[in-house]
Structures are given as C-alpha cells and as structure tokens.
Design brief:
The chain has 45 helices and 27 strands. The chain has 1009 residues and is an alpha/beta fold. It is globular.
C-alpha cells in the first residue's frame, strides 16, 4: 500500500509553483512572529502595515479600518457576510481621518505588486472546529484562497473529498469562509476551483494559459515559466506540457494579477426568489472573452467581434462581466454599454441577471421614446433594450466613440434592416456579437476585418469544450421507430415554412397555412403510436431517475392531440402541461380546442417553477407532479431547466433553432438528496431529421451527436478498462477471489478506478434498457461487486444500492447471489475486539497488516480534527508504512507494531483516564503540548499544567459563560498567567499567543454549559 501523505505529492509542488508566480512562501515558523490568534483568520499586523502603506496613513489610522472590515464576521448568514466582506475588500472602507472622510483601500488594484502576496501550508484557523487548509493564499494578510490537496492514488481520499472538505468551512470555521474568494481541490493529477459550498459539478479547471502583464510578471522575468506566442490571440501563453494538467491549471489561474482582476471584475452575488443568495465567479472562457473585448476596446483600431459560446456556457454572465469591466475601465471615459436583444423574454432574462446581481446604473427602456431620450442625453450607463426599438428613433444618434454594443443571440435579427438602424443610431460604437449558435451571416457581419481577411471568432467556446469541461452534458440523439417518421420528400416541401427565425406576427401567418405535410404529421393514428412509444420510453428511461422531458409538436393543435393521447396512455393531468402562446385572432373552433391550455403570464411562471423542481413527497403535497411539458415554439430557447433530460421531437427544426432546442437537455444536474446526477441529455426524434443537413455548420464548431447505438460502442471498451485491473483474477464466490480483489485494489490508482467505474455506470444508465447490454450484465454485476468491496475496505462506507440510479439499482437487487461474495471478507468492527476478530480470520500476516493500515487510516482521517492525539498517530502510522514498504522489519514484527498502534487508537477515549486526567479537556491541553514539542516535552510538567487549566475552567464556568466576552477575556488572562508562571517556566510557553488562543477556543468548545 502506498504512503498516503499528500504533502510531497501535491502540497509541496503546488506551493512551489505558486511561489514561482510571485507569491512569497512563508512557513508556519515565519508566520508565528505575527502572533495571530488562531480564531482570527487574518494576520492583522500585515494588513495594518499594507493599509498604511497603500493609503499613506498612519498605522493607528489603518488599525481603525479592521473592525469595519470584519464587522460581519459573526453574522449567522456566512454567505451574506462573505458578500459584504468582499465588497469592502474590493471597494474599500470609509473612515473619517482628522476632518476628512476617506475611502481607505484594502488592496492596491492599480499597482498590483504593491500588495503582499503570501502562500503558506497548513494554515490553522479555529472555529467551531480547528481547520487547517493544506495551502492558503493571503493578500495583505487576508486568506482569500484555500486549497485542499489530496493524493490521487491515496485510498479514502480523492478530488471529491477535497471539495467536500471545502464545503464544510461554512459550518466548521465561518470566519475563514467569510474571507474566502474561492477554493481549490487538487488530487495530484488536476486541480479545480469553485465557490465554497458548491457541488462538485460547479468546480472547474482553469484552461486559459495566457500570461498577465508579461513585462511585470516575476515568473517570466525570472524564467521560472517559459512562454509561447498564441497564434490566434498574439498573446503569450505559459508553455506547460499538456500532461502536467494540475500545474497548467494552478499556474494559469493563480497569477497574482489575474486573481486581483477576477476579485475586482469577475465575481457576482445573485439574488433570486427561487435560489436565494448565490455566489458566482467567472469561468475561464467568460474571463477570456470579456478581457478580449476590453483589450480591443482599449486599442480602438477594430471595434467588433463574434463571441461564440455554446448554449449552457453562461453567456448572460459573460455579458455582465464584460459590461462591468467596460464601465469601470479607467481609460474608456465612463462609457455607455448597450445590451441588445431581439425578444422581450430575453430582455427580461438579461435584465434579471443584472438586477439579481445588483448591477449599478442599469436601465431597461419600456418604449422607443425612452430609448430616444437616453441616446439624446448621451448617458453613461448600461441600457438593455430590444433591437426593434431602433426603428423608431427619427434620426437620433449618439456619435461618441466610447459606446459599446453587446448583442445577445446575434444569429437572429442582428443584421439587415434592424442592424442598419442600430448602426445609424450608434455610428461609432464598438459592436460585439454573442451567440450560442453561430451562422455564417453573423460571422460575415461582425467578424469581417477587411475585404481579404475574416476573423471568424474573437472568442470560441464550442459544444465539445463545454462537454469536456463538464459545463454541459453530452447529447445522445436517437430516432423513434422508422415507420413513424415522415416521408422525407413530403417533409421537405414544408421545411422552410416553419423553421426560419420568425417574429410573432410571422409565426401567426405560418400557423394559418395548413399544408398537406402538416396533416400527415398530425394523423391521429401516428400521434397515438408515438404517444405510446413516448409513454414507454419515459416510464422506463426518464422517470426512474427523477428527470423530466419536453415534447415538441409541429403546432398548437399537435400539442393538444399529444396531451390527449398521453392521458389515454395512463398519464395523470397533473403530470403533463401544454405550453403555447395565445393568438390575437383565432377562429371559434380553434379557440375551443386551445382555450383550456392557455396560460397567463403568472400561470406560466408557476408552471416553469414547478417543472424545474424534482418530484419529492413534499412537492407532491404542494401539488407539484409536473413531469412533461408539451410545446411547439415556446420554451425551446432561453429556457434552462437542468432537470430536463429528454426531448421528444416531432417538429422539423433546423440550424440554430434545432441546436438551441436540443440544448435544453444538456444542462448539468446533481440532486444532493438522492445523489442522482445527469450523465447526458437526450433527444428522441420522431420526425426523422437529417442532422447533417439540418445543422449546416462546420463540424469542428458543432461536433457530433451520438445515438444510442454509437454510445453502446463505447460500453465494451469502458467496462474492459475498468475490469482490466482484475483480468488475472478468477471471479467466483470464494475467499481467494475476495482477498485477491482487495490486494489488487491496494495496488491501483483509486481516483482512476473511481473514474473508470463512473464511466461504465453512466453509459449503462444512458443505454439501458437495451438488448445490446444483455451480454455484459454479469460483467457489470461483478464490477459493482468489486466497487462494493472498494467502498467498504478503502473508504469504510457501507454499500447502499440507493446511491445508484434506478437501472443499476434494479440490477443490484437482482444480483444478490453475486454481490454476496463480499461475505468472505472479515466483517470487523472497530472496537475492543477488533484485533481478536482479525486474528481469527483467514487473512495471512501481510493481508492482515494491510487491513489494519486501511482501518487505522480511516479512523485518523475521521477524527484528527476533533482530537490532536491523532496527529501523533498519523506520524507513527506513516513510519510503520515506510518500514513495511522497505521490508526493514519482518512482517510479523510490523504486524505487532500495527496491532499496538491500533490498540492505542481504539483506546483513545479511555486514554485520558489511564493517564490520570480528569476529563478529555485536560488530555487535549497535554496533547497539544505533546504535538508542539514531541519527545523533548517535559511530560510530567505538561500533565500538571493541563490539570491546572482543567481545574481553572471547571471552577469558573457557569451557564452562558462561553457567550460572555468579558468572561472569556478573564479566562484568557488566567491561561497566560499560568503559562508564564515559575511553576511551568521550564515548558517555555510564555508569550505563545497561538497556544493561548487554541486553549481558550478548546475551553469554549469542551467546557461550555
């Protein structure tokens, strides 16, 4: 078994790379000189010095800033406090100095290298529990980035465990959470960053390798990192090999100037009725695109460009970040930013993003008159408006150069007459087109540089990029029964009538054109057969995992027909909802057909809100059983419901309309309660669309969609890879098989094995039920069985079939005779009889030693924060592992050492009493001194001091004492007195402020009443 310390494998190289970037490495011994109380995450002395220097004020005045900066540290809502703290960190703090009110800067954003950048390891902070981030990055003494490092081949730990550790900061040590910008989880292979408390699906790698300010960058000056010129951007990129995945991400993200830029311009706190307060920071493509626009705006030589970021990549936030940086740029002269959309719902969607983010100086004109007034007055703000309003400006123009137009969904109406009128009103504006579905006309309008040269995209983030990053899920495109598809020649006649990008009045005109091809699509027999197929598919593939679906019909009549047929097939009316818009002029017959399905604006919002929620017992009690939406035009674009996994398509869409529609299914979805995660989006096509013709894009831009047969081709390779580790083991219901699997698991990379298992599991869930999987069912069962052993032996987790999605869960329940083979392994509880039970098992000495190592490691990892004695246990275990690996002792002697260590670990609860301590509190005081001094500690003197401190607190405590600052100060004085007393002088603890704070915090936690 490999040693499990992540220090040499991850912490040390990461801290070295970070220090090469310009962060100064400081170890714990160096930082002790500042005498930081462990309960305070900030090094006050450094912060006061930097505030005084940056603002040219006295240290006494600088010290007055700290209580204002940290006044929300005790706010019970840690996320709200984080927002307020970071706002002050970025904008400064208002303080009256002498006769003048001044805004005191905490960080010097204008001169980045005027700040103090520190990287350190094992940065201890005391909260409700003692937490020690493996790596901490501090700006001016404030820890703003924490890293949890996990060794990738270490058992019981991986990248997900790092994210889990970060998520506990809010509850364990709120003050460190409040001062945090973001966290990083690293596992030796890669690192991902994200907001503390967010699920793993919202942690991402940073992939923009561009160098910030190469002329000032110490990593470049000192030639620590070499560079290469990027052919597309002309900028310098870090030249780090692709196989050094973790180093690439760490070095590119954690450049000091980049962190300051992100802190100032690329962080947002959103408020919404559904989600409450949510913190978001930019992903690399958002940061990259916004800064490309800003750099182009600074130069002013070419004032346009296309930003293609595929659906689901956070385009609205990219627009917000771009707007913020343009508006606050010191060299752009307080510009105006127009955000142009082509539909009311998009105007509201973008507007909501700005409003929920509390974006300053934002205006949404209600009519053309208000827009005309804004253009006339040459205002400086963000204006969100529809492009149609530019038709009614009567020649009003704004000729300024510092006008910027950010055009959302630029593949629809942002050329031709509409765009000519916009250009006439804003003749010198910079124009930047954002699109999720690029088409040639957009590139021609916004990408053209000269008659001979075309810049296709200013920034590109493709469908495959998003899938690779985990920002969206892969889409499986499969076809319904061939006999239900429409004849292609007949379909072609009506193709263009329906699928162009139409305005509402044009759509109504198309609705009135009843063509024979529509009649074929809506034949009652065909609708009935498709409804049966949808019912079977939904009940078997979608509903078991708690996902939802959309059904896209050709028109409103088709939607109603499908609704009626689904009810005939057993759907309850509460499970299905038709959504379409009301037409102004409608025949009486059609009105009668549609009237029961019309929704007003308020009803539609309620339906969408219900659809986005998972069906739970509570939701059912609240009347929400909605599972399928039936639509024709509405909710095909700009509608995000991550719980939607499948779209049943019976309408001949094409190009951007088709691409946008099918992208409704690709949003990531993770349910924390059930553990269900969306592995892929899914389209079931009943109309028979030819994707190559319908998606007339460059294949490198769009990528390919897999069907279920193509997906199945990946399954044999995936399961062979996962099971390949065990090829030489005869899989059978025997002890020998079980123990051979345990041995092999000790030799392989656990993170890779988890990844391989996950890949097989996801493919199985995506394909099943399918006859193609039948030959692989036994092999898959054995993989589950092996994974069960892995969870039990290396993570001490009980196997729970409920962890898996429905189809795998069913297979597990059907395969108890195979999964029962784990019974050959000794079921050993970690208690006083552990060694006796283990000695009575079939395990040979080497296997027995490996099992004790695994179990001791588990106990230590679960308990090391709560009790400092486990730090000593960890060191001893590492030493025994080294001896075993080096074979410096006989296995029998190693086993005795392990049994002795395990006995001590198991007896920890009774150890204080055996050592003569009154309670665990006294033992804690003693053990902290033991950890500090090791073998040089005067044990009897330390025991006496620990007992003295225990007596003091037991005599002085009373109900509520821990809530009294005055009482805690008094007890702190007692601690300091005894540490400096003649009786304990030989321990040399006088003036050890860090230890005083540790003892006081422990007294609060251990002795409060």
């Amino acid at each position: 078994m490999a040693g499990f310390s992540e220090i040499p494998a991850v912490e040390v190289p990461m801290s070295k790379w970070i220090s090469d970037l310009g962060w100064t490495y400081r170890d714990n011994d160096f930082l002790k000189r500042y005498k930081r109380p462990l309960a305070n995450p900030i090094i006050d002395e450094i912060l006061i010095d930097k505030i005084a220097q940056i603002n040219s004020i006295s240290k006494a005045d600088a010290a007055r800033v700290l209580p204002i900066l940290t006044q929300h540290f005790n706010n019970p809502n840690a996320l709200e406090a984080n927002e307020l703290f970071l706002e002050r960190l970025v904008k400064g703090v208002n303080v009256r100095i002498g006769e003048e009110d001044k805004t005191i800067r905490i960080i010097d954003f204008k001169k980045p290298w005027n700040n103090d950048f520190i990287v350190t390891r094992q940065y201890w902070v005391q909260g409700f529990e003692l937490v020690k981030p493996d790596i901490a990055l501090l700006i001016n003494g404030i820890p703003i980035i924490c890293v949890e490092a996990k060794q990738r081949a270490k058992s019981n730990s991986n990248y997900f465990k790092g994210i889990q550790d970060l998520s506990l900061y809010e509850s364990k040590v709120p003050k460190l959470f409040i001062s945090n910008f973001f966290g990083i989880a690293a596992n030796g292979k890669f690192s991902k960053y994200g907001v503390l408390g967010a699920s793993a699906s919202y942690f991402f790698e940073w992939k923009d390798l561009s160098v910030e300010s190469p002329e000032n960058n110490p990593a470049i000056k000192n030639k620590v990192i070499t560079t290469v010129q990027n052919a597309d951007t002309g900028l310098l990129d870090m030249d780090i090999p692709a196989y050094e995945q973790m180093r690439r991400s760490v070095c590119s993200l954690l450049q000091p100037e980049r962190i300051l830029d992100m802190l100032q311009n690329f962080m947002v706190f959103e408020r919404s009725p559904e989600s409450g307060l949510v913190k978001k920071i930019a992903r690399y493509q958002q940061y990259r695109a916004a800064n490309k626009i800003v750099r182009r705006a600074e130069k002013g030589d070419f004032k346009q460009g296309v930003i293609w970021h595929t659906q689901g990549s956070g385009k609205s936030l990219t627009i917000l970040f771009t707007s913020y940086k343009l508006r606050h740029h010191k060299n752009l002269g307080d510009p105006v930013v127009y955000i142009i959309v082509d539909r009311k719902d998009l105007r509201e969607q973008i507007g909501d993003t700005f409003e929920e983010s509390d974006f300053p100086n934002t205006f949404k004109p209600i009519n053309a008159g208000q827009l005309k007034h804004k253009i006339k007055s040459q205002t400086s703000e963000v204006i969100i408006t529809n492009i149609q309003k530019f038709r009614e400006l009567d020649g009003v123009t704004d000729p300024r150069e510092n006008v910027f137009v950010l055009i959302d969904e630029a593949h629809r109406t942002q050329y031709g007459d509409f765009h000519s009128e916009l250009k006439a009103a804003l003749p010198n504006a910079g124009r930047y087109a954002f699109t999720g579905t690029p088409i040639p006309k957009t590139i021609k309008e916004f990408g053209k540089i000269s008659t001979t040269e075309v810049e296709k995209y200013l920034d590109r983030y493709s469908i495959q990029d998003a899938i690779d990053d985990g920002a969206t899920r892969e889409i499986i495109y499969t076809y319904g029964p061939t006999e239900l598809q429409v004849d292609k020649d007949t379909l072609k006649k009506g193709w263009d009538e329906l699928t162009e990008s139409l305005e509402d009045d044009e759509k109504q005109e198309v609705q009135r054109r009843v063509r024979p091809w529509k009649t074929i699509i809506k034949k009652p027999e065909r609708i009935a057969e498709i409804a049966k197929d949808i019912t079977k598919d939904f009940r078997e593939k979608v509903e078991p995992n708690g996902f939802k679906a959309q059904l896209v019909g050709i028109d409103k009549e088709a939607c109603v027909l499908y609704y009626n047929e689904l009810l005939k097939n057993g759907f309850d009316p509460s499970e299905v909802q038709v959504v379409f818009s009301k037409t102004a002029k409608e025949s009486e017959e059609r009105y009668k057909l549609f009237k029961d399905h019309y929704l007003n604006e308020g009803e539609l919002k309620k339906v969408i809100k219900k659809f986005k929620k998972r069906i739970t017992p509570e939701e059912l009690r609240n009347g929400n059983n909605l599972k399928i939406l039936i639509v024709c035009n509405m909710l095909l674009t700009g509608f995000d419901a991550p719980i939607e996994q499948t779209m049943y398509l019976d309408s001949p869409l094409k190009e951007h309309t088709l691409l946008q529609a099918i992208a409704r299914t690709n949003r990531p979805y993770d349910d924390k309660v059930s553990g269900v995660s969306k592995n892929n989006g899914r389209i079931v096509d009943y109309i028979g669309i030819d994707l190559n013709k319908a998606l007339s894009y460059d294949p490198t831009d769009v990528g390919t969609f897999k069907d279920e047969e193509a997906l199945f081709k990946d399954f044999p390779k995936a399961i062979d890879k996962a099971m390949g580790h065990f090829d030489d083991i005869t899989l059978q219901d025997t002890y020998e098989c079980s123990i051979a699997i345990v041995r092999r698991l000790s030799e392989i990379d656990h993170t890779e094995f988890e990844k391989e298992f996950r890949a097989v599991y996801q493919l199985y869930e995506a394909i099943s039920p399918s006859a193609l999987l039948v030959p692989y069912r036994d092999q898959y069962r054995w993989l589950i069985a092996i994974y069960q052993v892995y969870l039990s032996e290396y993570k001490r987790l009980d196997f729970d079939a409920e962890f898996y999605a429905a189809k795998t869960r069913q297979l597990v329940n059907e395969a108890t005779e195979i999964l029962g083979f784990k019974g050959h392994l000794p079921e050993v509880k970690i208690d006083s009889s552990y060694i006796d039970v283990l000695n009575g098992s079939k395990l040979n000495p080497d296997d027995k030693a490996e099992k004790i190592i695994r179990d001791i490691e588990t106990v230590i990892r679960q308990s090391e924060v709560a009790n400092p004695i486990y730090v000593d246990f960890l060191k001893r275990l590492e030493e025994i592992i080294k001896q075993k690996q080096n074979k410096s002792k006989k296995i029998e002697d190693t086993l005795k050492d392990l049994e002795k260590l395990f006995t001590e670990v198991e007896e920890t609860e009774s150890l204080p009493e055996k050592m003569g301590f009154t309670d665990m509190g006294e033992f804690y005081f003693y053990q902290e001194m033991k950890n500090k001094f090791g073998e040089s500690l005067e044990e009897e003197t330390a025991k006496a001091l620990a007992m003295k401190l225990g007596n003091i607190i037991r005599e002085k405590r009373y109900v509520g004492w821990a809530d009294s600052e005055r009482e805690k100060k008094s007890i702190k004085n007692h601690i300091e007195f005894w540490l400096c007393s003649d009786e304990f002088e030989s321990l040399e603890l006088c003036d050890d402020d860090a230890l005083v704070e540790q003892f006081l915090e422990h007294m609060v936690n251990q002795y409060k009443l």
